[in-house]
Protein backbone atom coordinates (compact mmCIF):
# COMPACT_ATOMS: atom_id res chain seq x y z
CA UNK A 1 0.00 0.00 0.00
CA UNK A 2 1.51 3.29 -1.04
CA UNK A 3 1.61 6.35 1.20
CA UNK A 4 -0.02 9.61 0.19
CA UNK A 5 -0.81 12.83 2.02
CA UNK A 6 -4.39 13.99 2.16
CA UNK A 7 -5.40 17.58 1.55
CA UNK A 8 -6.20 17.92 5.23
CA UNK A 9 -2.74 16.66 6.15
CA UNK A 10 -1.19 19.17 3.78
CA UNK A 11 -3.26 21.99 5.33
CA UNK A 12 -2.20 20.96 8.83
CA UNK A 13 1.49 21.04 7.88
CA UNK A 14 1.08 24.80 7.33
CA UNK A 15 0.30 25.20 11.03
CA UNK A 16 3.24 24.23 13.25
CA UNK A 17 1.73 22.07 16.00
CA UNK A 18 4.26 23.19 18.60
CA UNK A 19 3.46 26.86 17.99
CA UNK A 20 -0.25 26.12 18.09
CA UNK A 21 0.08 24.24 21.39
CA UNK A 22 2.18 27.09 22.83
CA UNK A 23 -0.53 29.63 21.95
CA UNK A 24 -3.21 27.40 23.46
CA UNK A 25 -1.18 26.99 26.64
CA UNK A 26 -0.40 30.75 26.89
CA UNK A 27 -4.07 31.70 26.51
CA UNK A 28 -5.28 28.77 28.67
CA UNK A 29 -7.81 27.75 26.02
CA UNK A 30 -7.93 24.11 27.10
CA UNK A 31 -8.29 24.91 30.80
CA UNK A 32 -11.69 23.21 31.26
CA UNK A 33 -11.51 20.76 28.36
CA UNK A 34 -12.13 17.09 29.06
CA UNK A 35 -12.16 15.46 25.61
CA UNK A 36 -12.45 17.81 22.62
CA UNK A 37 -9.38 20.05 22.83
CA UNK A 38 -8.34 22.95 20.61
CA UNK A 39 -6.34 20.79 18.17
CA UNK A 40 -9.32 18.47 17.66
CA UNK A 41 -11.56 21.46 17.07
CA UNK A 42 -9.12 22.96 14.56
CA UNK A 43 -8.83 19.74 12.57
CA UNK A 44 -12.61 19.24 12.62
CA UNK A 45 -13.22 22.78 11.36
CA UNK A 46 -10.52 22.54 8.68
CA UNK A 47 -11.95 19.23 7.48
CA UNK A 48 -15.45 20.67 7.40
CA UNK A 49 -14.36 23.76 5.50
CA UNK A 50 -12.20 21.85 3.01
CA UNK A 51 -14.93 19.31 2.28
CA UNK A 52 -17.64 21.95 1.82
CA UNK A 53 -19.99 20.79 4.57
CA UNK A 54 -22.85 23.17 5.26
CA UNK A 55 -24.31 22.08 8.58
CA UNK A 56 -23.36 20.55 11.90
CA UNK A 57 -25.14 17.34 10.95
CA UNK A 58 -23.08 17.10 7.74
CA UNK A 59 -19.95 17.68 9.81
CA UNK A 60 -20.88 15.03 12.38
CA UNK A 61 -21.75 12.44 9.73
CA UNK A 62 -18.55 13.06 7.77
CA UNK A 63 -16.36 12.85 10.87
CA UNK A 64 -18.12 9.68 12.01
CA UNK A 65 -17.40 8.04 8.65
CA UNK A 66 -13.71 9.00 8.89
CA UNK A 67 -13.42 8.02 12.55
CA UNK A 68 -11.00 5.13 11.95
CA UNK A 69 -8.50 7.46 10.25
CA UNK A 70 -8.45 10.23 12.86
CA UNK A 71 -5.41 8.93 14.72
CA UNK A 72 -3.26 9.93 11.71
CA UNK A 73 -4.08 13.56 12.48
CA UNK A 74 -3.15 13.36 16.14
CA UNK A 75 -6.75 13.02 17.23
CA UNK A 76 -7.62 11.40 20.51
CA UNK A 77 -10.63 9.14 20.80
CA UNK A 78 -14.04 9.31 19.28
CA UNK A 79 -16.12 12.29 18.23
CA UNK A 80 -19.43 10.47 18.64
CA UNK A 81 -21.84 12.58 20.61
CA UNK A 82 -19.71 15.72 20.41
CA UNK A 83 -22.07 17.48 18.01
CA UNK A 84 -25.74 16.80 18.66
Folded structure, characterized:
This protein is mainly alpha-helical and 84 residues long. It has one domain (7-73). Helices cover 50% and strands 0% of the residues. The chain is built from 4 helices and no strands. The chain has helices at 7-13, 17-27, 38-51, 56-65. Helix 1 (7-13) packs across helix 3. The radius of gyration is 13 Å and the shape is globular. The termini are far apart. The model has no long low-confidence stretch (mean pLDDT 83).
Percent helix among the residues? 40-55%
User: Would you tell me the overall average pLDDT?
Assistant: 83
Number of helices: 4
Radius of gyration (CA) equals 13 Å
Main sheet characteristics: none
Secondary structure class reads mainly alpha
Helix and strand sequence: HHHH
Q: Can you tell me the number of structural domains?
A: 1
What's the total count of β strands? 0
Provide a compact summary of the structure.
The protein is mostly helical and 84 residues long.
Supply database-style keywords.
mainly alpha
Please describe the topology of this protein.
Elements: H1 7-13, H2 17-27, H3 38-51, H4 56-65
Helix pairs in contact: 1-3
Amino acid sequence: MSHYNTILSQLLTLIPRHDFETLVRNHENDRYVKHFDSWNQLTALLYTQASGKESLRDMQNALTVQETKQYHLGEKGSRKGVVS
